[in-house]
Amino acid sequence: MSELPSAASPQSNTNELESSRGGPKGRLACDVCRERKVRCDRADPRCGRCARLGHRCSYYGRKSYHPAMDSDLPRRLSELQERLTKAEALLALPGAVPVAGYPWLSHAPCRPFSEPELPAMPDVVFQDAPDECGNQEPWCTSLEFLGLPELQTPAATEEIGLSSKPSSHARVSDDAEQPPDLIALYRNYFEIFYPTLPILNQQRFFSEIARDPNHPPTKCLSYAVALMGSMVAVVQDRAIQHQCYHLARQYAELCERNEHHADLNLFQSLVFILRYELDVRQLTRAWMTLGRAIRLAQVLDLNHLDRPASICRSSWGFHVALPTTQEQGDLEERRRAFWALYILETYTSMRAGIPCHIDLPQVQVNLASPGELGPDFEDTHMPLLTENVNLTPATHITSYSGLVLMATLARQCMRHVMQSITAESDSPPPGSGFWDRHYALSQAINDRMAGLQAHLSAKASREDPTAFSLLVNLCAVDLYLHEAAIDQAERQDLPPSVVAESRRRCSADALKIASTIRMNYPVARRDGDMLALQRTFIGWPLVMSLRALWRELRAATDLTADGVAGSLRFLSGALDAIEEENGYWHHLVAGVGVTLQKWEEEHDGFGSLLRQEDRKRSRS
User: Can the keyword Nucleus be found in this entry's annotation (predicted)?
Assistant: First the structure.
């Protein structure tokens, strides 16, 4: 169609527009006329209002159209069809697709093949057609995933205009580029990050990707796993993290808008997204994501996974049952995913000072069994978790289950402290019930430490990042309990002997945290080290120990002050390694540096007593 002539006058443009509309009532138009109208609009004619007012029409976000593009379209489509035919021929070769194993473990050999790069086609060519292939992921549309040259797969061939059937899955339109290497990010998660968050069955994950890569919950989970894989680096690539995070959240919202809102993959994705938001200290977003994950867990009834069959399910109408399975690995995957949410909610609540929403008395889920999720997983019958669960020496508690037990103690301690604050505002008898709860919790922590001793050793904390996090956080919970006792004694003006044990426990816990972090502190930072994997969960133990040693330094004698000051100096440096200087944790211990500097000036520099002892030995 020839280009529209430019308007000669405002009146002529107005008449043309009125005639094209067909009067006030409008006119029916066939598909050919509608297509002609669309092409005419691409010429950007002047509208009637601008013509009357003498303004210049503006068209935003629209690329210029040239009729010469239409003449080039058949050649481009022919080249595309030729490339797709060659791709199908390559895929038909015997041995082209690995039969077993994962894509990165074996790459099928293929003949060298080079194809001229297809020039970029203008957006206007497909402007009127639905976008059926524009958002394919690299692991779906790239034959590099199968060890072949970069061509379109047959699945993509069927979607690119060779078939007019619409896609069965909705697509997410995004402006972000795709992450460059999803397979490497998956590998990072399963080989490095997995021990800290072992909630995903690797075999099931890749099977679902291979079976239906365009399923929105599967896509959401794939980007969430890639997001976890991007967190193992010491110097993290924020651009890749932003891409994965952006796409994972978009697909999560797409699942909630469509019929895919109740899916285990979506729940696991929300857990991964929550873990990332806590790592980058986006507490407000994390709190909102946490609420979505908790509600989804209730919809899927994950908090009643091991409820006895004799107990009837609630008659409420919002539960959506997950597919029934007798596979022990699938059931264990669901348990671990729920306990991951339980742990992350505990951390978020402690960080924000807000009560938890998951009510432990209503939870009927066994503790996590040992072993890696996979086809060879064997379930070990573990007890249901209660606040007073009795763990016998024969019970094989993993470090991951230890985190669940530690989180339960942290919730009890936080509830205990909140009750004391509420009691003060209601003005009951002074200290009513506080000390009874305090001694009961102190004994419970001692019992748990004894039961988890296998994971609290120096050897375990060096080899297992989860055991490392368990040790420092369990010490922080104990320190938190005894700090509350010291504050309560000061408010009630009790004699120092009442909290002498609490002061001793606070000092011991703070020094234990310092020595554990010092022992695992990497000499040279590398990807996947303890700080890279657990920086989210060691900020609170660092602050608790810094506060305790800060108070200890102000009351320390000359014989003990050097050791306390040295631990303070080290912990301050460790905090700098996991958070910027203006971060949240730094604000909580802002006075430590001033106190430490003042102490050094008063004692003629850091470590003066140690240097004096060295001089005495050299003289003798």
Answer: yes
